[in-house]
Design a protein that fits this description.
269 residues; Rna Polymerase Sigma Factor, Chain: A; RNA_pol_sigma_r3/r4-like; RNA polymerase sigma factor
Length: 269
């Protein structure tokens, strides 16, 4: 079932400038005005695509997942079920459920090992290296706390100001800004950690699993010192550490580095 994407103008005063609320649009759909669902589609297809890409093992499936989710929600509403007020949470829950179901039934994987990538997921076949880094960034993003994912999406992908994004998360602009800073640093650390890979030497494992935070000076003084002593004596870990330091150099204190989060998460729209 396809979802029409035609815009739905306000049905009241022609001079009105306030957009209809989700609740009003849902009531119109229930009343037989199926075209009103087009406005909901336009309003939430972008965030729906974001959720589908981050929840799916194969981001190439995102468009199908979003389309199926919107169609399922529309069918539910027409049948007398579905959301009455909270359309966005209902839709995103449906998308996550469908993505997880597809993950369970699909044998395709975005990344099978450090040498094989699905280049179609984010870029052309002539950009395999950039694609590999993009996939690592997405995988790192998926492991962040949900609240961190939300704030990074609103601020760094959609480009909302703290005053705009704050109410969406129940935060003041200052608290939103502080949370965004912590989330960005958490993403940097997780992104670096994803480059460490699985330890090949068992005795190195307790140290390697903290390298992402270590390179970013994110550990306590004692923990930093323990890893430093180990890398001074271990040639393997010393080599891994050198690679991470080179990788994180462009990040600095405030920059994410390449690839950019927003470009990766919205690519393919």
């Amino acid at each position: 079932m396809s979802v029409q994407t035609m815009p739905c103008p306000n049905r009241g005063d022609p001079a009105a400038t306030e957009p209809l609320s989700d609740q009003q649009l849902l009531a119109m759909v229930r009343g037989g005005d199926v075209a009103a669902f087009g406005e909901l589609f336009i309003r939430y297809r972008r965030v729906g695509g974001f959720v589908a890409r981050t929840e799916s093992n194969n981001p190439g499936d995102a468009a199908d997942i979003v389309g199926e989710a919107f169609a399922a929600v529309l069918q539910s509403i027409i049948a007398g079920g579905g959301p009455v007020e909270s359309f966005r949470p209902y839709l995103l829950t449906t998308i996550r459920r469908m993505a997880h179901r597809k993950n369970q039934t699909s044998a395709r994987m975005v990344l099978t090992d450090s040498r094989t990538v699905d280049a179609r997921a984010f870029a052309g076949d002539d950009h395999v290296l950039g694609t590999h880094e993009s996939i690592i960034l997405v995988r790192a993003f998926r492991e962040l706390p949900r609240r961190w994912q939300d704030v990074l999406w609103y601020v760094d992908v959609e480009g909302l100001k703290p005053a705009q994004a704050g109410p969406l998360l129940g935060l003041t602009p200052n608290a939103l800004s502080a949370l965004a800073m912590r989330a960005r640093e958490g993403l940097r650390q997780m992104y670096l950690q994803k480059h460490v890979g699985e330890p090949t030497i068992r005795s190195c494992a307790p140290y390697l699993r903290h390298f992402g935070r270590y390179v970013r000076n994110g550990l306590s003084g004692n923990a930093q010192a323990k890893i430093r002593r180990h890398t001074d004596q271990c040639t393997h870990c010393s080599a891994v550490l050198a690679e991470l330091r080179e990788l994180q150099a462009p990040m600095g204190a405030n920059a994410m580095g390449q690839p950019a989060l927003g470009d990766v998460l919205v690519r393919g729209d």
